[in-house]
Please model this.
Amino acid sequence: MDKFKDIRAYRVGWLLTICDFLINFPALWILAKRTTKGIKLDYLGDRKQIEQDIQHGAFFMTNHRDIVMDSAWLSLLLRCRYFIRPFIGIGNNLFAYKWIELFVRFNRCFVVKRGAGAHAQLENAKVLSAYIGHLRQQGKSIWLAQREGRAKDSNDTTQPAVLHMLTIDFEQQHRPVEEFFDYVKTLNICPVSISYEYDPCDYLKAREMQLKRDNPRWRKRAKDDVESMRTGIEGWKGRVVYRLTPSINHDIDRMLDQFPQYKGLPIKDQIEHLCFIIDQHIFQGYEIFERGTDFEDYLQSRLAKIDIPNKDEKFLSERIHEMYENPVLNHQKSLEK
Model:
């Protein structure tokens, strides 16, 4: 019996290979040509060290800009350069339409179940954590965003809940807390910074922020997610940079050399240290774009696309501006640290 059947969304075998080669692979390059000035795979620091880190599979954890393209283009770039094709975690909230489910079945996606009760969420997390551990034991690579959903304001910080989910299998094994960092190192987390010169969903994110501000009970509908997916796929992104960073295993080793007492901390505190490390990798890996003197006009054109009742232009303008400012501020702060 396959205990991972419910989360293994992808198909296997010859059909997957043929569809990937004939449909998915060229389609992604065509999209890149139509919607960007080019997609680039780059490195933060020692390229040879990074290539050594990912040689036997890695857990690629990224910030999250676009629902579909973040993982799709990273997978494409890794395949072309290193013959690595990560398994991709995707929330079941995106399975609102049959075509989406069919699409992900040919992209090595596995299902991250959301929206259940507390007990069901715990059970889902246990299965997912065990599945990820199973993939890593086989030397497979994985992609997952650092948080559930996209950071609407582009303030990309790693959610402790994500790392807790990844390591819940460790807790189920009832191993001593002193071995927690050793378990994390088996995942081989390699953060990746994703930078878009222009975010095609910027106005949709700002729109959502005002709707939530005006009505705290407002919730996205399935068609809202589909609109974001379509806009993210078809919209103009300008220059796109994926910057690989070294495995956090090196940071863990340095940290424990300096502060060996951290091994005895509660898991919650150890996770906070790991989140900080991942965040610093992603912040330092941002590409900082020079967008030119007409950028303000571009932002005003994005603001004009928002059509909602009681449109608060000052609030919406501030939200769109901060989406582009926060990566720059976080990058600068990380370099100071």
Q: What stands out?
A: The radius of gyration is 20 Å. The chain has one domain: 43-336. Residues 313-336 form the longest helix (24 residues). The chain has a mean pLDDT of 89.
